[in-house]
Design brief:
- The protein is of the alpha/beta class.
- The protein has 2 domains: 226 residues, Spore Coat Polysaccharide Biosynthesis Protein SpsA, Chain A (Alpha-Beta Complex), CATH 3.90.550.10; 66 residues.
- 49% of the residues lie in helices and 12% in strands.
- It has 10 helices and 7 strands.
- A 7-stranded mixed sheet has the order 3-2-1-4-6-5-7, sandwiched between helices.
- The longest helix is centred in the last third of the chain and has 29 residues.
- The structure holds uridine-5'-diphosphate and magnesium ion.
- The site of uridine-5'-diphosphate has 17 residues, from β1 and α3.
Length: 313
């Protein structure tokens, strides 16, 4: 199969028929073999009935239904597991992303050899105050922390080489960081394409201002897990040693001072309390490192490497 289109959705009943028609039109015009996978993320409107209805008319359309709302990331993840195409395209269900971009995205993956191509909504049709300005800041932070030079991480329209979609696990609120997940999995050829963007036609946005609180936290954990997930001691041990040595050094200094001048009091000086707390914090960090190691050594998949080619066996 040439293309899988993965579409997570929640309460988007009005948009679905139009979107399915539009995608089918594009696919047929290019003679692609394709599937459209709708993932109903616990909708409370008629979305699932609409999907069943579309499916009954067109066998290229498939549906997955969550029993309750799990979030866009979970939707993408299930879509990736189910996808059978050589190229996997993700898009939002609200008609903000343009299906006409699909052929060029596919070309970039198959001919130009990109592992992942992200859409870039250069001209956006969203609320300026709550979305456009914070997202500039958010994109700059993500670029800086991840080292991936993309302008628009949060674009719903993205294309993945099959292997990439199959090897990343999107959980929590990580759907904004799939390029970072891909990079950690070893897929480094990540590009972008300017895409046209429309204003939301039906329904309303499902993410409020909370995205700018949760987003940075998710980025921090993704960076941490990617870097130290398999060797937590290198993080906690280093930090713990620094604190511990600082505490011990200060204590030794205070003890020597007391020996030289027995009449002086220690407990009324800040140094005394700093020495105590830094020693304790140091030990705590060290112990966290050990616990982290225990967890990561015993975790299922601790030896799961991504191997694409093996010869001589
Ligand atoms: N979505 C989802 N689960 C959720 C929230 C949103 O599957 O819990 C879908 C939503 O239906 C849409 C896409 O994720 O297809 C992007 O959501 P939205 O358009 O609300 O985000 P925005 O464009 O405002 O960033
Ligand atoms: Mg939208």
């Amino acid at each position: 199969m040439d293309i899988s289109v993965v579409i997570p959705l929640r309460d988007e009943e009005e948009s679905l028929p139009e979107l399915a028609d539009w995608i089918s039109r594009v696919m047929k015009a290019h003679n692609f073999s394709y599937e459209i996978i709708f993932i109903d993320d616990g909708s409370t409107d008629n979305s699932w009935r609409v999907i069943e209805e579309l499916r009954s008319r067109d066998a290229n359309i498939k549906g997955i239904k969550f029993q309750r709302n799990y979030g866009k990331s979970a939707g993408l993840n299930e879509g990736f597991r189910a996808a059978g195409g050589d190229v996997v395209i993700t898009m939002d269900a609200d008609l903000q992303d343009n299906p006409d971009e699909i052929p060029e995205l596919r070309r970039l993956i198959l001919e130009d050899g990109f592992d992942l191509v992200s859409g870039w909504k250069k001209k956006r049709y969203d609320n300026t105050l709550t979305k456009n300005i914070p997202s500039k800041f958010y994109n700059a932070t993500t670029r800086w922390m991840s080292g991936i030079k993309l302008h628009d991480f949060n674009c719903g329209l993205k294309a993945y080489r099959r292997n990439v979609a199959k090897s990343i696990e999107v959980y929590g609120e990580m759907h904004r960081y799939t390029p970072v997940l891909a990079k950690w999995s070893g897929y480094k050829k990540i590009g972008e394409k300017v895409v046209t963007h429309q204003a939301r036609k039906y329904g309303k946005s499902k993410f409020g201002i909370s995205r700018f609180i949760n987003g940075p936290l998710d980025l921090a954990s993704i960076m941490f897990v990617g870097k130290y997930g398999k060797r937590p001691m290198h993080f906690f041990g280093l930090l713990g040693s620094l604190f511990f040595l600082l505490g011990i050094g200060l204590s030794v200094y205070l003890i020597i001072k007391k020996i030289i001048d027995p009449a002086s009091t220690l407990t009324d000086k800040p140094g005394f309390y700093i020495a105590l707390t830094t020693t304790i914090i140091g030990v705590q960090l060290f112990l966290s490192g050990f616990i982290g190691e225990l967890i990561s050594r015993n975790a299922p998949g601790r030896n799961s490497y991504l191997i694409e080619k093996k010869t001589g066996f």
